[in-house]
Amino acid sequence: MANNSKEYNKKNYKKYWWKPSQIKDRTARNKARNEAEKAWKVSKGDWKEVDHKKPLAKWGSRSTKNTRVVSRKTNRKAWAAIANKRKGSWYKIKKTTKKK
Fold first, then answer.
1. Does residue 98 lie in a domain region?
2. Which of 27, 23, 25 is CA-nearest to residue 14?
3. Is the residue at 7 inside a domain?
4. pLDDT band at 96 (very low <50, low <70, confident <90, very high)
5. What does the DSSP 8-state code read for residue 19?
């Protein structure tokens, strides 16, 4: 079976995202987004995301004091920096070279 097949991806998706710790973190992220929407800080389709200042993966708090609204680009860039520090990370930041 090839690594990019649908069966392989579905199997790994269930293996990782259905862990109790991941369910708990996903619930916290959804709750933070819903609370920001109720406070009119974000709205559907505005390309903004609710970011945890100290990431949940780094034992950050799930409280609203630990959240902020940032652009999608900023949030993904911060996530990539964390992922790149992990050993064997598959996600790499693309470095652009400036032409002289």
1. no
2. 23
3. no
4. low
5. S
Report the amino acid identity of residue 70: V
Whether the CA torsion 55, 57, 61, 63 is positive or negative: it is: positive
How large is the angle between the packed helices 20-38 and 6-17, nearest 10 degrees? Answer: 80
Residues 6 or more apart whose Cβ sits within 8 Å of residue 34: none
Which residues form the domain of 81? 12-85
Q: Which residues contact 42 (CB under 8 A, 6 or more apart)?
A: 33, 36, 48, 49, 50, 69
Maximum distance among all alpha carbons in the chain? 51
Q: Is residue 1 part of a domain?
A: no
Q: Is residue 97 part of a domain?
A: no
The alpha carbon of residue 19 and the mean position of all alpha carbons in its chain are separated, in whole angstroms, by 16
**pLDDT tens column, 39-61:** 999 998 898 989 888 887 778 88
| Domain count within the chain | 1
Residue from 37, 71, 22 nearest 51 by CA: 71
